Amino acid sequence: METKLTLRMDEKVINAAKSYARKQGISLSKLVADYLRVISTKSNSAQSPSTFKPTPILSEITGVLQNASRKKDVRKEYNKYLEEKYL
After folding, report:
1. Each residue of 10-33: pLDDT tens digit?
2. Cβ proximity of 39 and 33 under 8 Å
């Protein structure tokens, strides 16, 4: 059974999330539902990891950073990316 949920958050966050969902070809509702499903599965210790089924987006990006050089400071690179994007 599906139920409507109302969330309140910063307008910039909502717009960014809508844009991200649109680029992924899914609705914002599905994006939020998938995320909540993932975090609720993690916190539910009764459910074994073998029953977890990742979303298509999660499956697609899993392992992306495995080939990244360990010498690089990923956090600094990400901060630089955010500064360039939003400033």
Report:
1. 898 889 889 888 888 889 998 888
2. no
